[in-house]
Specification:
Two copies of one chain form a homodimer.
Chain A: H1 4-12, H2 18-36, E1 39-42, E2 58-62, H3 89-96, E3 100-105, H4 133-140, E4 146-151, H5 157-163, E5 166-169, E6 189-194, H6 197-208, E7 223-226, H7 237-252, E8 256-259, H8 264-284, H9 286-291, H10 298-306, H11 312-332, E9 338-342, H12 362-367, E10 371-379, E11 383-390, H13 396-412
Parallel strand pairs in A: 2-3, 2-4, 7-8, 7-9
Antiparallel strand pairs in A: 1-3, 4-6, 5-6, 5-10, 9-11, 10-11
Helix pairs in contact in A: 6-13, 7-13, 8-11
Chain lengths: 413, 413
């Protein structure tokens, strides 16, 4: 993979020009993407910006995020060739920080269930996960050092786990979702993929103009709460093992580690996620569902068919449950610095029919808390398994510092 | 003005066909809009839907709200002729309820400060207010029974007061803002204009599919807190008088009325509004401001020039202040059923150079609470003055019931 931090160091020192860094990415895409299929559209004549902390950094943009000079097709034929008027704010933030947009990355249709054609770079017989399939795969394959994705259920953390890359789903609305095709306005969150946790921190700091997110001093003895989210069902052996390894390794590195049973209010909030998501999706995608029914992607359409009876009162109760859950979670973070849990139920499923299951992600999306995937173990078939580091709402710097602690402990193992 | 409730009654009874109701509106637009200038674009071949509670109801859509079959120009030459792919969800909700979209209504550029060309139907020498200028004017002039607007500072309640129509800015996100050009994602709120409070209630209930919003039994003895928002400066005499008349009339009608001094936390939240709005506007409008600078509307551009130094830390503190304000306001609603305050500083300003001042609206937009404008008095020049009825977050039914109490009391006066 391409380390963003390493590129920045070489560019800052004059060892590498921004244009040469971009050219490396373009060559890697030329060489690798014919088999991986991470990009659905490439920019022409890409050059490095002359300034900004992300000069020389080639970025892929998930194709539900508006770009003024590239099509934005939402992974659906309904938007074939569609050209938005404006860049989404988060794309402008990348450009203002000096990054170069090299193309649009494959997404499941409307960032939902219908798979993209992208293959998992770690094992092409398996899905890269979704919905941010192309963004995770492009970073994992070493094509680009940074990519944008989005998460409504588990669409950033899960593909990052399946592809063995670092990723952050920041606190809700730290990155604006304006100009991002909406599925659920209470849940949709823009996230980043990169080779490692420091790379994420540097990119997020540059994009948001928040120096407090830059990598700082390491946490010495974090208080870690390990949660298994029993309400979400049992994980597969590979994820169970990854969590055990990460927790044991963190403990040996000096962390105080203990198991935490999440209160019933959080099990209820976990249940509420789908009601919020599907009720809002019926409104957000009303034009597509009601006027383009035949052209709708089949798995998403079937889900909308199945969920069209949700009443406003059920939605209101689901939102109240989410609010109760947020308060309960806030109390947990008075006792621990971070939570450690599964990033996904197991390794990437075989084949491309399913992008995997969001059941270990959706509670945290609904809570709006920052989540980081840290690659932890490699299972049979060369398939990576990540763990998920979670911090209090608004404490993205803490989530990144905690994830770096886990990442460094695992590297020393 | 055209009463939506009365149209519904006549259509339900078979006294009037949906198509005849639509035709009345189209004829009124033909006759009146040459002088008023409420519409920037008209739909062709408009017919009534065969079913739904809003069949026969002609609706105008503020021209920052996406429509698939009409241009959406944002009041700016940057979007001249722009055609979105999809209808905004709120437009689809109107259509699903049976309403007919008859055209797009004039908006200040990007729903900000640069005025539209619309005249005030009550006195053409005065502004109709903004930013939802065309929507307020079209309802006030009797062209249409219902119009959609949006409010980020005071863009629904203020033009309603200036034009003498009822309007509701519902609880934040009761109506989705997806497909509405974003200025500030924390503040932007879709609202409705109609002839009277019952019309608003019937429309909002139909659009949201929430029967609890339908007009019910009248409140007998509401507990009313009168607030003058001293931190926002003094009102003009006309608004002072309107509030006095409305409060006295409500008291005579049986309400318990008392003055409430808002706590300092709410004065601080009022201050925080601008920081939230302008920080987010710089992100939301980054593409326009940074790539279309010369074509930007001049007043908005000057404001963005002036506010570009707001730091993320200042924005974070403003959001925390808003949260503290929301909690303080929640405590006030344990003691009163509704707040009554100014809708605007006075009558509509003369001329079209300014659409007026948001200082009595912006706190309530930031709080996300439902606000209703009720026309209260007529000042010199035939210019109406409204009062603002406010209820607890999520209690839109209560806001409408309280507004109806005030409206009925004023009608009996």
């Amino acid at each position: 993979m391409i380390s963003l931090s390493e590129l920045q160091r070489r560019i800052d020192s004059g060892d590498l020009s921004g244009d040469a860094a971009i050219a490396q990415s373009l060559q890697a895409i030329d060489a690798l993407d014919k088999t991986i299929g991470a990009f659905v559209c490439r920019a022409e004549n890409v050059r490095s910006s002359g300034k900004g902390p992300l000069r020389g950094i080639a970025v892929g943009i998930k194709d539900i995020i508006d770009t003024a000079d590239l099509p934005t097709e939402m992974g659906s034929k309904i938007y074939r060739g569609w050209r938005p008027r404006a860049d989404a704010p988060v794309v402008m933030m990348l450009k203002q920080a000096g990054a170069s947009i090299v193309g649009k990355t494959a997404t499941t249709a409307f960032a939902s269930r219908d798979p993209a054609a992208t293959l998992n770079p770690r094992n092409p017989d398996h899905t890269p996960g979704g919905s941010s399939s192309g963004s995770a795969a492009a970073v994992a394959a070493g094509m680009i050092p940074l990519a944008l994705g989005t998460q409504t259920g588990g669409s950033v953390i899960r593909p990052a786990s399946f592809c063995g890359v670092a990723a952050i789903k920041p606190s809700f609305r730290l990155l604006p979702t304006v100009g991002v095709k909406c599925f659920s306005w209470t849940l949709d969150t823009v996230g980043l993929f990169a080779a490692g946790v420091n790379d994420l921190a540097r990119a997020l700091s540059a994009v948001t103009n928040r120096p407090e997110l830059l990598p700082g001093a390491a946490i010495e003895k974090p208080r870690i709460g390990v949660v298994t989210q029993d309400f979400a069902g049992a994980p597969e052996a590979a994820s169970s093992e990854a969590l055990r390894v990460a927790a044991d390794t963190a403990a040996r590195a000096g962390a105080s580690v203990r198991a935490i049973a999440l209160p019933e209010l959080l099990a209820e909030a976990w249940q509420a996620h789908e009601t919020v998501q599907e009720f809002e999706a019926h409104q957000a995608l009303a034009w597509e569902y009601l006027t383009q029914y035949e052209a709708m992607p089949s798995l998403l359409r079937a889900k909308l068919d199945e969920t069209k009876g949700i009443l406003p009162a059920e939605y209101d109760e689901a939102r109240r449950s989410a609010n109760r859950g947020r308060k309960a979670l806030g109390r947990i973070f008075e006792e621990v610095d971070m939570l450690l849990t599964f990033s996904a139920p197991g390794v990437a499923p075989k084949g491309l029919a399913s992008t995997g299951d969001t059941r270990f992600n959706k509670l945290w999306t609904l809570m709006g808390v920052p989540c980081v995937n840290v690659p932890a173990t490699i299972a049979t078939g060369g398939l990576p398994v990540g763990v998920q580091v979670i911090a209090r709402f608004g404490n993205d710097a803490g989530a990144l510092a905690a994830a770096r602690f886990v990442e460094e402990a695992l590297a020393r193992k």
